[in-house]
Design brief:
Number of domains: 2
CATH topology of the largest domain: FAD/NAD(P)-binding domain
CATH superfamily of the largest domain: FAD/NAD(P)-binding domain
Strand content: 15-25%
Number of helices: 8
Largest sheet: 7 strands, mixed
Helix content: 10-25%
Number of strands: 21
Distance between the termini: 25 Å
CATH class of the largest domain: Alpha Beta
Order of helices and strands: EHEHHEEEEEEEHEEEHEEHEEEHEEEEH
CATH architecture of the largest domain: 3-Layer(bba) Sandwich
Length: 411
């Protein structure tokens, strides 16, 4: 069966729903195709039980569904996030088809539109908006298949709570937001935790009287574009270590070490019951510390430049992590490790798009989400326009732009 529609939006997460909202306002015919059984699947299925927003509630800015509750400075839990997505999707005057997996997007032979094949229908459409988000393919090292089957392996997207893991110590690989939050939950539950540290930065939850997210917005941190980064690879740096749990709190690897977490260098290799680590722990910790110091220096300069009345604050200087004993190889059995939590993030997976629209890293080649192939557009990834392009706070702006590009296309 072949169906026709002006625009197909692939994905009913924050980017796809925001795009649908703006297309509806412009009166443009479209359909949203979502593989999962409901909207906001990344929030529903790829987050653990105790997860909360890491940005304040007021930064929940889906267009037409902006947060207007009585706790703007709080951090809503996963269940509330999912409920808001469900209400938002239900309010849209658009066709959203759940449980429909897109298999391929191919150009029409004459170049005027696309053929979109799904597991239930064949579509012809003029425009395709790819809004499949960041959480596409779990990143796990290839050697994981060579590790002992006696050790459970779980990606952060599949982790739910400490009780869901076998009894015993846990190796957490990755120190971005997810890795650090899960590591903290595990050791606070009484687990022995080993943490392989990367170079994701650290930010205090609050500084000089404001939430750090407020300062980041005021100083233009999230308005930065890819051209302002030191290298293209910097687009894929982990988000700063911070938590919204219990009203919001800071995360600090040195505090982790003080609390008994064993800090390790970057993952190097592994086989059977042993994993090797690089001798770069101190270097990584120095990068984490420098990120925070540089960030606070920029905030201090902004406060002084703008004449803002904000009380001076000096954060505690912790250095416990530098005292960690170097470990080049870890015997999992001897260390009592029964689980490995892969917190290394995700890889892009745009294989369904059968066009050469991607760079060597798999990221779309585009200008604010618009590719060189007329009608092929992307929304919902950070750095499509600015860093905030992938955030609940900023995705609506990009979605509005993409909808306007579709409306402006000549017939």
């Amino acid at each position: 069966m072949t169906e026709r529609v002006e625009t197909i939006v692939i994905g009913a997460g924050q980017a796809g729903l925001a795009t649908s909202y703006h297309l509806t306002r412009l009166g443009r015919e479209h359909v949203v195709l979502e593989r999962a059984p409901g909207p906001g699947n990344a929030w529903r299925s790829d987050r653990w039980d105790s997860f909360t927003l890491n940005t304040p509630n007021w930064a929940f800015r889906l267009p037409g569904a902006e947060y207007q509750g009585d706790a703007p400075d709080g951090f809503m839990p996963r269940a509330e996030i999912v409920a808001r997505f469900e209400r938002f999707a239900a309010s849209l005057q658009a066709s959203i088809r759940y449980g429909v997996g897109v298999q391929s997007v191919e150009p029409e032979p004459d170049g005027r539109g696309f053929q979109v094949r799904t597991d239930e229908a064949h579509w012809k459409t003029r425009n395709v908006v790819v809004a499949t988000g960041l959480y596409q393919r779990s990143k796990v090292p290839p050697f994981s298949r060579q590790l002992s089957p006696k050790v459970a392996q779980v990606h952060s997207g599949q982790y739910r709570n400490p009780a869901s893991l076998p009894d015993g110590s846990v190796l957490v690989v990755g120190s971005g937001q997810s890795g650090c939050q899960i590591a903290e939950e595990l050791y606070l539950s009484g687990r022995k935790v080993f943490l392989s540290v990367g170079s994701a930065g650290r930010a205090p939850r609050r500084y000089r009287g404001k939430d750090i997210f407020t300062w980041l917005l005021l100083t233009g941190f999230f308005d930065r574009t890819a051209g302002q980064l030191p290298s293209p690879e910097a687009r894929f740096a982990g988000n700063p270590q911070v938590s919204g749990l219990d009203g919001g709190r800071s995360l600090n690897l040195h505090q982790f070490a003080r609390d008994g977490v064993v800090l390790l260098g970057r993952l190097r290799a592994g086989r059977e019951g042993a994993i090797g680590f690089a001798a770069d722990l101190q270097e990584s910790l120095a990068k984490v510390d420098k990120f925070e110091a540089d960030l606070l220096q920029k905030i201090d300069a902004y406060i002084e430049r703008e004449g803002i009345d904000a009380p001076l604050e000096v954060l505690p200087s912790l250095r416990d992590g530098y005292e960690a004993e170097p470990i080049s190889e870890l015997d999992l059995h001897s260390a009592g490790i029964t689980s490995i939590l892969w917190g290394m993030g995700y890889d892009f997976d745009f294989d369904l798009v059968k066009l050469p629209a991607f760079d060597e890293s798999g990221f779309p080649v585009q200008r604010r989400g618009v590719t060189e192939f007329p009608g092929l557009l992307f929304v919902g990834l950070p750095w499509l326009h600015a860093q905030k392009s992938g955030l609940l706070y900023g995705v609506g702006e990009d979605a509005e732009f993409i909808a306007s590009m579709i409306a402006a296309r000549p017939s």
